[in-house]
Structure formats: C-alpha cells, structure tokens
C-alpha cells in the first residue's frame, strides 16, 4: 500500500499535553489522521495521512441515517527501552472484519488495518506518553458513506484512524468501581448485534449509563435481554467473577463483545494456575456468592479499562460490597501481569506483543 503523507510544518504542530496526570481518556487528538476509501468497482483507494481535521461527508450518507458504523480500540505503549509496542493488533483487525460482515460493510483487510496503524503511530510517536498507565489510544473507524437515502448497505466506505494520548479510563485510576445492575433497559439482544463493535450498541446504552452515573455509580452492569437474569458485560468491559479461586466469565453468547483483553486474561489466568470457566452466570448466583463469601472478587477487562476491580454492585435498591471494596489478590496479580506484558517489561511467551518501531 502506498500511503501518501501530507506533512505539516513544525511550526503548525500542536503542543503536547502539559503533563500526563490529567490526560484522562479521549480528550486530546494528535496532529494527523489516516483515511482511505472503498468504492464499489474500485476497491480500497486513496490511503492517506493528513492533518487531523473534520470529515466531509454527504448529508445522505448511510452512517448518518442507518448507523452503518463500526470501530475498534487498541493502544500503543512506550516501553522503557524506547520500543513502540502494540498488543495483539491483529485481533482488533480480525474483530473489525467480523463486525463489518455483521452489518454488511466492506471489511478492511487485516494487512491494510495493520499498515495504516503502524505508519500513523510511527509518524505520531512524539505523542506516545511514557508514564506507567498511559498510552496512545488508537481508534480505527469504518463508516458507510454514499449519497442516497433508502435502507441498504452503502456502496462507498471511509476507513479512518485517529489517535489520542490517554491515561486512566476511569477517574481515580485503579480503584474499585461501583456498578449499577440494570434491570429495566437492555443493551443488546440474542440474535442482535451485541457481538459487533458498532456504534448503535453504545447509543442504546447511553440512557441507562447516564441514569447510573447520575446516581453516583461508575458504569452499568448489563443483564441478558430475554430474562434479565444473567450477567452480560459492563459498558466498555467484559466481566469476571472469582468464586473460591476459580475465575468465571459469561460465555460468548452472541450478545456480548468478544473482548481481546477477556481472551488474554483467560490465557494468563490459566498460565498462573487458575481454573477458568466460561458459562452463564445469574445475578442470583452472584449475590448469593457475595453473601456466602464464596465470591471474593469481581473485575472488568477492556483495552481502555485494562483490568478494573469492582467494589460493589447495586441491584434492585440494595448495595452489595465485594471484598470490602478492596482490590482483590487475583485481580491485582492479573493486572500486573497484563500491564507488564503490554509495556514490554516481561517475556511475552504468547507472541502477543508487536514491536512496531523505536521512539
Ligand atoms: C461493550 C464492550 N465490551 C467489552 C469490551 C472489551 O473489549 P477489548 O478487551 O477488546 O477492549 C469493550 C471495549 O471496548 C466494549 O466496548
């Protein structure tokens, strides 16, 4: 792929964040973005890196009316020895292809996805923060364009990638979260698009998460749509429960996102000697486990949220505390192992970490 690069003069570059402690999540964007079009009959054309700027799309574009949109989220890490590392980026590329197929979009080929990211991140390497817990978040996005109304898949697509230096996803960093177990609204249904990373799922989640936040909770823990009985996932994380030293996580039932951190944590936990079960977990079993003391830890997993301990669940008017609202031993061990791998501090025996350049 021949990527054309439209460079800015040094004097036109943005100034970097003043310090990494206030980075937060997704508030600052770098100088450049990647764009590429797909047109029926032509294929993927015009790969380009140009200054970060508003997009120009037709007001009749399919994405604006029928939500034909998918995205991904991954991070570039600054290793202490100056290497630029990505964590399992091919998994994001593959998941984006699966999401594309689910909502009838033209999939971005894996090698295009990886080359676009590698080239853009290398060009923008001055933006990769180096403090522990910080990284350069990468947001590849695919939208249906075109200029005709009517419900149909678009015949033109725009793939773009933007970058944002980030710190902790949740205010307060690595601290136990309080989750609101939602029993009125649902996020997705069986047979729906829950397993695809498409914007509509997130739009559907907004009302419940705003309600939860207004009551002082960090995020919503979703239950299944059919019976509102089984745990699904959290706003931007998959969920794990620890029962008597055994890790249990909801099975990939089609309505939850197959998280890459989820799959990594399953492998890491097994390598640390823990048993892991993927199966339906009811809210009743969860609350009984907390009451009996068999359920000792709950944590969420996600690229943005890394591994986030859960300190309490609020369900139908009652608050249930887990592990005295403290970070659990297994949560802490898995967090450390994952972060050490991502920042290149320990040996990567799974071949997950990809070195894409030098600072
Ligand atoms: C709804 C949802 N579930 C789970 C996850 C975790 O997925 P991953 O570990 O691939 O980041 C995300 C991440 O963005 C998400 O949005």
List keywords for this structure.
binds pyridoxal-5'-phosphate; 24% helix; single chain; 359 residues; 30% strand; nine-stranded mixed beta sheet; 18 strands; 7 helices; alpha+beta; globular; 2 domains; D-amino Acid Aminotransferase, Chain A, domain 2; D-amino Acid Aminotransferase, Chain A, domain 1
Structure description:
The protein has helices at residues 62-66, 89-102, 110-123, 199-214, 260-271, 283-292, 329-342, and strands at 4-5, 32-39, 43-51, 69-71, 74-78, 83-87, 135-144, 156-166, 177-181, 219-223, 231-234, 238-243, 246-249, 276-278, 295-302, 306-315, 318-321, 353-358. It has 359 residues and is α+β, with helices and mostly antiparallel strands. It folds into two domains: 4-166, Aminotransferase class 4, branched-chain amino acid transferase, N-terminal domain (D-amino Acid Aminotransferase, Chain A, domain 1), CATH 3.30.470.10; 177-342, D-amino Acid Aminotransferase, subunit A, domain 2 (D-amino Acid Aminotransferase, Chain A, domain 2). The strands form two sheets. Strands 1, 2, 3, 4, 5, 6, 7, 8 and 18 form a nine-stranded mixed sheet that branches. Strands 9, 10, 11, 12, 13, 14, 15, 16 and 17 form a nine-stranded mixed sheet that branches. Helix 2 (89-102) packs across helix 3. The protein is globular and about 60 Å long.
């Amino acid at each position: 792929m021949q990527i054309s690069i439209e460079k800015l003069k040094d004097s036109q570059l943005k100034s970097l964040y003043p310090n990494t402690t206030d980075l937060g999540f997704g508030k600052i964007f770098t100088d450049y973005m990647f764009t590429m079009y797909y047109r029926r009959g032509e294929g993927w054309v015009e790969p380009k890196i140009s200054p970060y700027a508003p997009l120009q799309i037709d007001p009749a574009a399919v994405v604006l009316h029928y939500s034909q949109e998918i995205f991904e989220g991954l991070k570039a890490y600054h290793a202490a020895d100056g290497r630029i590392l990505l964590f399992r980026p091919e998994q994001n590329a593959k998941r984006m292809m699966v999401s594309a197929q689910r909502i009838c979009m033209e999939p971005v080929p894996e090698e295009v996805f990886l080359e676009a990211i590698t080239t853009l991140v290398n060009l923008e390497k001055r933006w990769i923060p180096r403090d522990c817990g910080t990284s350069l978040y990468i947001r590849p996005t695919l939208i249906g364009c075109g200029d005709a109304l009517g419900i149909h898949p678009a015949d033109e697509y725009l793939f773009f990638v933007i970058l944002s230096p980030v710190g902790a996803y949740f205010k307060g960093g690595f601290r136990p979260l309080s989750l609101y177990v939602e029993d009125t609204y649902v996020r997705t249904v069986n047979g729906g698009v829950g397993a695809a990373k498409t914007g509509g799922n997130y739009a559907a989640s907004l009302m419940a998460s705003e309600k939860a936040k207004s009551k002082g909770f960090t995020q919503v823990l979703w239950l299944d749509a059919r019976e509102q009985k089984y745990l699904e996932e959290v706003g931007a994380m998959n969920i794990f429960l620890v029962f008597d030293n055994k890790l249990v996580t909801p099975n990939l039932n089609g309505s939850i996102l197959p998280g890459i951190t989820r799959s990594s944590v399953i492998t890491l936990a097994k390598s640390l000697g823990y048993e892991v079960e993927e199966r339906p977990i009811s809210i009743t079993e969860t609350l009984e486990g907390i009451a009996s003391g068999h359920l000792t830890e709950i944590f969420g997993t996600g690229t943005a949220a890394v591994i986030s301990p859960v300190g309490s669940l609020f369900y139908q008017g009652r608050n249930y505390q887990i592990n005295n609202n403290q970070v659990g031993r297994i949560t802490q061990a898995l967090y450390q192992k994952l972060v050490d791998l991502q920042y290149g501090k320990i040996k990567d025996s799974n071949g997950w970490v990809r070195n894409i350049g030098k600072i």
